[in-house]
């Protein structure tokens, strides 16, 4: 059954393609991206104030380095961004020689290793990959990915999850908890059927996987064994990615998108692209800092 939980609009500034939400518990600040428009949103949850930063390039995710810096994952590389003034400095290129691709879903492992997904700007088959930034060096984990999504990690760091949305399969892969790198091959955890597709995911403190079902107006919650436990309604058709936010990490921030909608489609889905807060009745985990060395 679809649950109707208390839901509010955090931002009614519609994102062409909302993605990459994360939360800094030390400053009570939520961050997310509008990939297509090259925008970074910054929301102070306590005050409700929201700032929008123009990045000048497509970007999809960030990791906190320390109190003064972030690592931004963009279409042509990884950038260190200073919070004080927004200045961005290239840390290392990534697929910079391939203008047909961009970054997509990413997440930081408890070890500080950053998993980074790339894809074709037109979702070309197998044009992307999933990489790991481990102690300042990038390695390829899984090549030939069409639409990388659902990158998240079990609470003990021993299991990594990801999907290629085009394949409708959520994979689980054993990891070295100390490094966030695979120590085995991916196995199929579940196969998605029905309407919508597997998009972004996050794990809660109990190890359950909260997945945004793109095209189905919902968040699905799966057990570590792949059993669907709950489905929460989202007031926009194309929910894209969740993140736990708030001082007790009990609320779920959900991004969405109006991508590929014509005028009639947007009229039928008036909150498409908005960013929401759901009272999740669950507890998340604080996002770790990314380690560069």
TrEMBL record:
Residues 17-257 form the SMP-30/Gluconolactonase/LRE-like region domain. Belongs to the SMP-30/CGR1 family. This is Sugar lactone lactonase YvrE. The lineage of its organism: Bacteria, Pseudomonadati, Pseudomonadota, Alphaproteobacteria, Hyphomicrobiales.
């Amino acid at each position: 059954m679809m649950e109707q939980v208390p839901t509010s609009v955090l931002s009614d500034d519609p994102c062409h393609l909302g993605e990459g939400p994360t939360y800094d518990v030390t400053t009570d600040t939520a961050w997310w991206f509008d990939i297509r428009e090259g925008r970074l949103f910054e929301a102070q949850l306590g005050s409700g104030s929201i700032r929008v930063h123009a990045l000048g390039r497509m970007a999809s995710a960030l990791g906190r380095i320390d109190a003064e810096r972030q690592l931004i994952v963009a279409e042509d590389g990884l950038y260190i961004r200073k919070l004080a003034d927004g200045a961005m400095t290239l840390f290392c290129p990534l697929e910079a020689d391939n203008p047909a691709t961009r970054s997509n879903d990413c997440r930081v492992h408890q070890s500080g290793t950053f998993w980074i997904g790339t894809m074709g700007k037109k979702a070309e088959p197998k044009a992307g990959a999933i990489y790991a930034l481990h102690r300042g060096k990038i390695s390829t984990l899984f090549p030939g990915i069409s639409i990388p999504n659902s990158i998240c990690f079990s609470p003990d760091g021993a299991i990594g999850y990801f999907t290629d949305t085009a394949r409708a399969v959520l994979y689980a892969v054993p990891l070295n908890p100390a490094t966030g790198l695979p120590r085995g091959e991916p196995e199929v955890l579940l196969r998605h059927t029905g309407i919508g597709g597997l998009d972004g995911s996050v794990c809660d403190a109990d190890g359950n996987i909260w997945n945004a079902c793109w095209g189905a107006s919902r968040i699905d919650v799966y057990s570590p064994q792949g059993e669907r436990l709950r489905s929460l309604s989202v007031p926009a058709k194309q929910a894209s990615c969740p993140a736990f936010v708030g001082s007790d990490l009990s609320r779920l921030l959900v991004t969405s998108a109006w991508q590929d909608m014509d005028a009639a489609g947007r009229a039928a889905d008036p909150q498409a692209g908005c960013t929401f807060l759901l009272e999740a009745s669950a507890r998340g985990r604080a996002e770790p800092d990314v380690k560069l060395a």
